[in-house]
TrEMBL record:
TM regions (residue ranges): 16-35
Topology within the bilayer: Single-pass type II membrane protein; Single-pass membrane protein
Main location: membrane
Cell compartments where the protein resides: Endomembrane system; Golgi apparatus membrane; Membrane
InterPro entries xrefs: Put_SAM_MeTrfase (IPR004159)
GO molecular function: methyltransferase activity
Name of the protein in question: Methyltransferase
GO biological process: methylation
UniProt family annotation: Belongs to the methyltransferase superfamily.
Originating species: Populus tomentosa
Length: 579
């Protein structure tokens, strides 16, 4: 009896010990899971903050199923099918409709600015690519050749034949690298500029090309490791921006009119105009003042063509010399008002440099109207003004020598280190850099469907928008079929919680589909409930999609959705399906 009693005690003790061990393990893994889910141990503090700001509990009651994809759902909701638009809309650009543009005033190029349709006029359908559309050639071949079927317009080959913009050869367009101001090629022209502007040592990295044509200047700047953002209006040269984008050169439809350029202040190292037909001296120098706003202190402005050196060229330009003389006088006066230093005038080229600080501008101060806005980066849909944007007051910005790109690539920007951007510290910037380095490495690692070989490294025109970009209504900033890939992080969660946004999720996704090439890719990174909603919508848009776990493990609510737009073109009547 005693033996049986001792055995029972041992069994009881063993049971209690097992219960304590199991309870301890459960508690440990619960705490570990909560810690991992928070992201604090994985360098995802920024993602956590975005999640906090956008967690409006829209889909709290959804039931998930584990399957081949992370976060698969079966809630019985039917996928909405988006039909193709009519073939006549292959070049549809919502906010740059030519017929609508002609109803607006021509003063100050207002009719060439963005005029978006009301909701009742939007096309809730998929814009087709031209029949036979071909994937662009890999870079750098795409700089020189574009398949004719991708942009089947020959007018520029006739109008600009003697200027070597573009030539039609068989089934391709060839771009010899010429321009109105450099008919013998962009290389020689760029090298002439580089004799004054430090392009060869990485000092100049970013450039803005106003009135870019087919963007050959920007295309050939890649040789100097300089990246140009090119823009031009959608005018009689209807396809010029389309050609630029098919070549793989970053470009947007845009114009210097009455609205500020959509770039923050001090964004570019260099700005350029080659016969861009912008009246620089008009409106009290307002357009030059806008260029001054987006130029870094110490940045360069290049103007080539009329009216530079008008004394020797007025007959060739077939313009009255008095008119050209007055035009250049106004430009020189505005440049002096802005305290720019003229570095060179040779032939038809003039180069000015913006001063690095206000020390050189004291005598001009009484003559200048200083902009009243305290935030020169607040530019979305804001009217352009004939006023001078003041230099930043911090020593870190005004007195610092320019660093080569290789050094400033990983350096903290002075506007952040100086504390001039509210809510953004050096620590958050460095954390964000580490986070994105980790994300990009993860994209390469989990890319099992050939996404990297098809997109990354093939074309330089990839787009990473941000929330402020979407709040401003992104329709028609780009031409049709302009991008090979898009990257989105945390944006749609913002839209779920936003009661004042002008765009809903379907609008954004339809616009993404419009500007994305056939077989182009989109990578979404967001909370799983948001990505499930995105996946359902794109399932009706002829996109293939696959969701994968966060690189830090399946316990994090943030997931990644890889999508690829299926190949289809005008004239096909394939049904929309998700594969």
């Amino acid at each position: 009896m005693a033996t049986k009693g001792n055995s029972g005690d041992r069994k009881s003790n063993n049971s209690l010990l097992s219960i304590f061990v199991i309870a301890g393990l459960c508690g440990f893994f619960y705490i570990l899971g909560a810690w991992q889910r928070s992201g604090f141990g994985k360098g995802d503090n920024i993602a956590l903050e975005i999640s906090k700001q956008t967690d409006c509990s829209v889909f709290n009651n959804l039931n998930y199923q584990k399957s081949g994809d992370a976060g698969m759902i079966d809630d019985g909701e039917q996928v909405k099918e988006f039909k193709p638009c009519e073939d006549k809309y292959i070049d549809y650009t919502p906010c740059q409709d030519q017929m609508r543009a002609m109803t607006f005033p021509r003063d100050n190029m207002i009719y060439r600015e963005r005029h978006c349709p009301p909701d009742s006029k939007k096309l809730p359908c998929l814009i087709p690519a031209p029949k036979g559309y071909a994937n662009p050639f890999p870079w750098p071949k795409s700089r020189d050749y574009v398949p004719f079927v991708n942009a089947p317009y020959k007018s520029l080959t006739v109008e600009k034949a003697v200027q070597n913009w573009i030539q039609y050869e068989g089934n391709v367009f060839r771009f010899p690298g010429g321009g109105t101001q450099f008919p013998h090629g962009a290389d020689a022209y760029i090298n002439e500029l580089a004799s004054v502007i430090p392009m060869d040592n990485g000092i100049v990295r970013t450039a803005l090309d106003t009135g870019c044509g087919v963007a050959s200047w920007g295309a050939y700047l890649f040789k100097k490791n300089v990246i140009a953002m090119s823009f031009a209006p959608r005018d009689s040269h209807e396809s010029q921006i389309q050609f630029a984008l098919e070549r793989g050169v970053p470009a947007v439809i845009g114009v210097l009119g009455t609205i500020k350029l959509p770039y923050p202040s001090r964004a570019f190292d260099m700005a350029h105009c080659s016969r861009c037909l912008i009246p620089w001296g008009a409106n009290d120098g307002m357009y030059m003042m806008e260029i001054d706003r987006v130029l870094r202190p110490g940045g360069y402005w290049v103007l080539s063509g009329p009216p530079i050196n008008w004394k020797n060229n007025y007959q060739a330009w077939q313009r009255p010399k008095e008119e050209l003389e007055e035009e250049q006088r106004k430009i020189e006066d505005v440049a002096k008002l802005l305290c720019w230093e003229k570095k060179l005038e040779i032939g038809e080229i003039a180069i000015w440099q913006k001063r690095i600080n206000n020390d050189f501008c004291r005598e001009q101060d009484p003559k200048r109207t200083i902009c009243k806005s305290t935030n020169p980066d607040d530019v979305w849909y804001k009217k352009m003004e004939a006023c001078v944007t003041p230099h930043p007051e911090t020593d870190e910005v005004t007195g610092a020598a320019w660093q080569p790109f290789s050094e400033r690539l990983n350096a903290v920007p002075s506007r952040i280190s100086s504390g001039s951007i509210p809510g953004l510290s050096v620590e958050t910037f460095l954390e964000d850099s580490r986070t994105w380095k980790k994300h990009v490495n993860a994209y390469k690692r989990i890319n099992n469907d050939g996404l990297e070989s098809r997109v990354i490294g093939k074309h330089p025109n990839l787009l990473l928008p941000d929330i402020s970009f979407l709040k401003a209504n992104i329709l028609a900033v780009f031409r049709i079929r302009s991008l090979s890939a898009l990257f989105y992080w945390g944006i749609f969660a913002f839209l779920f919680c936003c009661n004042h946004c002008r765009c809903n999720m379907e609008d954004i996704l339809l616009e993404m589909d419009r500007i994305l090439r056939p077989e182009g890719a989109v990578i979404f990174r967001d909370k799983v409930d948001v990505l499930i909603k995105v996946r359902r919508i794109v399932g009706g848009m002829r996109w293939n999609a696959k969701m994968v776990d966060h690189e830090d493990g399946p316990l994090l609510s943030e997931k990644v959705l890889f999508t690829v737009k299926q190949y289809w073109v005008a004239g096909e009547n394939n049904s929309t399906s998700s594969q």
